[in-house]
Amino acid sequence: MIGRPYYGWVVVAAAFSLMFVGFGAAYSFAAFFGAFQSQFSASRGHVSLVFSVAAFLWFTLGAPGGVLADRLGPRRVAFAGVACLVAALALASVAPSVGMLYLTYSVGMGVGVGLTYVPAVGAVQPWFVTNRAFASGLAVAGIGAGNFLVPPVAAWLIGAFGWRVAYQVLALGVLVLGGAAAFAIDDDPARRGAAGAASAARTARATLPGATLGEALRSEPFWLLYVASVLVSVGLFVPMVHLASFAQDAGYSEAQGVALVSLIGVGSLLGRFTIGVVADRLGRLPSLAVMYVGLGAMLVVWWLAPQYWLLALFALSFGAFYGGFVALAPSIMMDLYGPRALSGIIGFLYTGPGIGTLIGPPLAGTAFDALGSYSVPILAGAALSFAAAGIVLVLIRRPHTAAS
Description:
Layout: H1 7-27, H2 29-40, H3 44-60, H4 62-72, H5 74-92, H6 98-124, H7 132-161, H8 163-184, H9 197-206, H10 213-217, H11 220-236, H12 238-249, H13 254-282, H14 284-304, H15 308-337, H16 342-349, H17 351-371, H18 375-396
Helix pairs in contact: 1-6, 1-7, 1-8, 2-3, 2-7, 2-12, 3-6, 3-17, 4-5, 4-6, 4-16, 5-6, 5-8, 6-16, 7-8, 7-13, 7-15, 11-17, 11-18, 12-13, 12-17, 13-14, 13-15, 14-15, 14-18, 17-18
């Protein structure tokens, strides 16, 4: 680690907190799904599009969010993101229709996460050299922690006070915790005035490629990884939106369905914390291929799973592979392109999952509305995940592009 002793870990904690509040609020959507269907008499395809539009926006806006963070610093951008998250939840709580949820929740949540996620991930990278994958894993573990804790809390709030009050409580939590985290985020070790910080930063930059955003976007490895991320993400977010409803269709309670979504968060935490060990042995690109294969295999398990214990095993394992994938991506970009325009590069890479997310959950809901089953979208997601792994293997076989 470089910079003032221990402050890099403060940045990790701040990034963790920003992702906890942003993605916790976003992934609690599964707990609100049934309430939206009942309140607005809407189809599953219609309701799931509310989440997918938000996810598409946060992945797409990660690119300009990253560029802004490179130019203005992550603190200002993160503050703006937190403000959007709070506004999204507060305004969604008074929405009179699904259409208004698009204007409040979808837009506000999408912009808010887009302005917090990539700047936070990018801010962690310059503080670490040898422990970069581990630090990144800890930071993005906030996504898994939010996915684990916030949906059941939201479900309890909905049951006790209704979905509108639940969103108001979540807005207050985001304001307090997210605001404190945005204040603490920083991406410049030298600015902290540590002895040797500037020298260490120069040394780190000298040993890594320092590509501009344009150079990265003109490189073949970037686009191979981009296409792979699009393919894997078509199926990636289908369980986040539809798993709770799937479980209720199978005869389990609403609480059991939401618990499955929380188990994805538990698995995600495990994946993010352990991926560093796996990546140190296999290399980061081979580990990414393993994550994609694992995601595809778990979707097949979901397709086969009638018993609750098997659904729970799917959710936990799927979350672990998902968490490993998310933790690896920033470090791979750092390996390939260096710190010069890292937030912008990561942001552009994340527009790929945005496209996949915009496709997957709405089509899954539409397929269920038409066929009464999720089988087709689940198996399609599995096939696309395996295809994504194949693309990463192509990249690994080209020595001049391999990351380690």
